[in-house]
Amino acid sequence: MGTRDPRVDAYIDASADFAKPILEHLRAVVHAACPECDETMKWSFPHFMYEGMLCSMAAFKAHCAFGFWKGALVLGEASKDTEAMGNLGRITGVKDLPSKKVLTAWIKAAMALNEQGVKAPMKRKPGLPKRPALRMPKELTAALERNPKARATFDAFPPSQRREYVEWVTEAKTDATREKRLATTIEWLSEGKTRNWKYQK
Questions:
Q1: pLDDT digit string (tens) for 159-183?
Q2: Contacts 24+ apart (CB under 8 A), 57-62
Q3: N- to C-terminal Cα distance for the chain?
Q4: Which residues, in sequence order, are bridge partners of residue 154?
């Protein structure tokens, strides 16, 4: 089982009245999704640890923030990291938060990244263009529709891991190589494997 840090209790108690229910809700969802997580204080605000940094929450004068250490990999284009600290933008009430189901899915994805030893991506420098939206090749979409197990694995992956498979298939130089990679993709996804599973501990 994980641990609760009394310093986090003190942090919540010292927060503004509007922030307390937000922080309590986030804390409860994180522990429910990841019972093994440990609480700590880093940079003067609460963090949740699970095989490394998992996520954190903070309260300010007029809003709260919540974010994942590997937020870009967990949320992809859905991340609102340009609006406020964290990935969910400015949170002024529990109503501003995604559903418990969505938050739990993100937490599970963040846990999986830590379990696989995936490192947090480097922060994009201001002014650099964002990566283009992921375009699924028709043959990969069709192959996934024919294999529900592979489809379930693919859909559960964070955007970065889906992109690795898509780019591997689309960057093939010949039709033969493309077909071979497509078959391998479906095989590995059916086994729950990431594109780079051979290189992960």
A1: 888 888 999 998 888 989 999 999 9
A2: 57/23, 57/26, 57/27, 57/86, 58/85, 58/86, 59/11, 59/12, 59/15, 59/16, 59/19, 59/22, 59/23, 60/19, 61/16, 62/90, 62/92
A3: 24
A4: none
Copy the structure tokens of residue 148. 């529900």
Predicted model pTM? 0.58
Q: Which domains does the chain have, with CATH numbers?
A: 6-115 (3.90.1150), 138-199 (no CATH)
Contacts of 3 (CB under 8 A, 6+ apart): 38, 39
C-alpha span between 77 and 74 (Å, rounded): 9
Indicate the burial class of 28 (C-beta count within 10 angstroms; 0-12, 13-18, 19 or more). Answer: exposed
Q: Quote the crossing angle between the two packed helices 148-156 and 138-146, to the nearest 10°.
A: 120
Give start and end residues of each alpha helix (H) in 122-197: 138-146, 148-156, 159-170, 175-190
